[in-house]
Each structure stands twice: as structure tokens, then as C-alpha cells.
Amino acid sequence: MFRMMKFFEYNWQVRDEWFNWCKQLTPEDLLKDRIGGVGSILYTLFHIIDVEYSWIRAILGEVDVVVQFNDYNTLEKVKSLSDTLRNEILKFIQSNPDESCSKLVSVSWDEATYTRGEILHHIVAHEIHHVGQLSVWARELELSPVSANFIGRDFSSI
To answer: Which residue in 17, 46, 62, 129 could disulfide with 57, CB within 3.0 to 4.6 Å?
Structure first.
């Protein structure tokens, strides 16, 4: 199985926990612009999903699909987008042999080329980075953030 699979599973599990965590917030709290990061809590979740999908499509040699936040500006819509795109990404990850990680990829938004492995590592690190920002915002709201622990998680359900 693809070596990076556990890290994608980890990110998806933590993301789903953040979606559940967000249910305690009002739509106003979800959409409020916050200091640092990319804006609001909801937009951060959207951004994580959009970036993941764009990079995977680039690896597949497919045209980037530009997803507009205005079309997904509720918690339910962002969660649905995550679930839908995750199914496509999961198919890629489950069929992607480790040997192809050195293959070069060009993207429409950058002139440089990257290896598939670099991109996959970037996707994982990108989400972890933004989850850290969500954790800071949770503390600012005087709420406990979702656990970021990798150890002790059950990945058999994904």
C-alpha cells in the first residue's frame, strides 16, 4: 500500500473531527475573519480541501477545477465537498504505486516542476499547518481544539 496513505487518513480523520467541532459554533463565528491564517475557520477548512484537490489533479495531469467558496459557504456544504472530493482522491491514493513518486509534475499556477512525492508531502504538511491555526483560534474562543495526536488513532474505518 502507498506509504503516504496513513498520513492522508490521519488528515481526513482530524478534518472530520474539526467538522464535528465546528457544529458548536454559530455561522457568524465560522465566517468571522480571524488574525493569521487564510481568514475564517470555515474558509480555512475549504482552503485545505481545495488545495488538496488541486494538487492531486495536477499529479493526475488533469486541469485544475477552481472551486468557489461562495458556492460552499456553510459548514454542511464544505463537509459535503470534502466527502465528495475525498472519494476521488482516495481512488488515486489506493492505485498510486510508490515508484511513481519521482515522476515530475507541472502545475498551472507555478512555473516550477515538482515530483509527485514532493507534492504529496506538501499536501499533508499543508493541512497539518492549517489545523494548527484552527487550534489557535479554538483556544481564542476558549474552546478545546481537536487533538492532533497521530498515536492512538484507529485508521481501519477509512
So the answer is: 62
Domain ranges of the chain: 5-140
Q: Can you tell me the distance from the alpha carbon of 155 to that of 38, in angstroms, rounded to the nearest whole number? A: 29
Fold entry, domain 5-140: Four Helix Bundle (Hemerythrin (Met), subunit A) (1.20.120)
pTM of the model: 0.92
**Along the 158 residues of the chain, how does pLDDT read in single tens digits?**
467 788 999 999 999 999 999 999 999 999 999 998 899 999 999 999 999 999 999 999 999 999 999 999 999 999 999 999 999 898 888 876 666 778 889 888 889 999 998 999 999 999 999 999 999 999 999 999 999 999 988 877 65
Nearest to 18 by CA among 120, 151, 128, 156: 128
Count of all residues that appear for the chain in the document: 158
